[in-house]
Amino acid sequence: MKIIQVDEHVSLRRDPDSGNEKIQAIVDEIIADVRKDGDEALRAYTEKLDGAALDSLFVSEAERAQAYEAMETKTVEAIRQAIENIRDFHERQRSESWMTTKEDGTILGQQITPLDAVGVYVPGGKAAYPSTILMDVIPAQVANVGRIVMTSPPDESGRLHPAVLVAASELGVDMILKAGGAQAIATLAYGTASVPPVDKIIGPGNSFVALAKRAVFGQVDIDMIAGPSEIVVLADDSARPDYVAADLLSQAEHEERATAIVVTPSTMLAEKVAAEVERQLEDLPRAAIAREALDTFGAIYLTADLYEAVDVVNSLAPEHVEVLCNEPFLYLGKIKHAGAIFLGENSAESVGDYFAGPNHVLPTNGTARFSSPLTVDDFLKKSSIIHYSEEALAENSEMIASLARVEGFEAHARAVEIRHKKDVR
């Protein structure tokens, strides 16, 4: 890995539109076809792009049962325990409607209601991401979303990975669509004869999925346009180089565009981490992917001290920050910009990805400067409640009308005055 002396502002931010013009054109065509031909287009694209000629667009009960037979008992138990942890964390995020009453009879408040329908996209094909299902579905369920539709691309045999089906079944997801890519996003957004449209689409995917989500935004809400995965390790010379290296590789193996960075004032640690990364790469199954990610987007930044190191972390505003320092909690209040903060040597980022409870859907590409992890609130909407009494209107109508007329809206002013004055000309 490159060891770089920090001497200027550093950033993770990349141009999200770079090189996507051709993909966007394909995405737009797919969306138009699904809007026009519905289920027929969905079947056609699934056969063309995924190589699966489907008898049914939906997962059957028999397929669910077969998925359980194919899974090891210990993995099913792990999924169940993860569900318990994640649900417990998100239950603590519940919001309640509220109202307040003033002496003049004014009643003001906020009504909180869940979304009617949410679509959850789960990457698939040869890979399996049951953790995505848990992190996306559980907060929606805690929010009491009325209908949840899951969609995931099938393999060439027209099936989804057993782990995906078990995770969805454990959560009670009834409708599981066998479709991926832009065609699945278009189906969720606009609906077909078989799939009613949803109000919000969440879940990660490749460039086609990301661009399709952006294209349908406005027709539906979306969670975010997620970029490649990121980790920044803030470390002092007390950190174990093998731990740091393992955590860097845990992100670098995601894809060639993943980012893995160490920020430290310790030259000795930097050199040991670089050597340890090379050692651990030797027998890593996804070594080629990880190496390209580290060569392109990996770095070890050397700082003058830990104060400067924290400034660098905040400048990067990464998806994940690990604090592998002698007293990690000392830095918690100083790290302002991060999707998730992992404190101490036992808090590997993998713990958060799968099991601890907090959501692993996190802001990327420097957007932790202004955005947050996925929460229960993302599946709720808020309506303001306003009730004015006759006394309150009489007391305030002149000021309301004055503000309306400053903005040039005479009808707004008269709408108040007609209630307070019996004769308005």
From TrEMBL:
Residues that bind Zn(2+): 251, 254, 353, 412
Catalytic function, reaction form: L-histidinol + 2 NAD(+) + H2O = L-histidine + 2 NADH + 3 H(+)
Catalytic residue positions: 319-320
SUPFAM superfamilies hit by this protein: ALDH-like
Binding site for NAD(+): 121, 183, 206
Keywords: Amino-acid biosynthesis, Histidine biosynthesis, Metal-binding, NAD, Oxidoreductase, Zinc
Keyword NAD belongs to the record: yes
Residues reported in the UniProt entry to bind substrate: 229, 251, 254, 320, 353, 407, 412
UniProt keyword NAD, yes or no: yes
Protein name according to UniProt: Histidinol dehydrogenase
Lineage: Bacteria, Bacillati, Bacillota, Bacilli, Bacillales
Gene it is expressed from: hisD
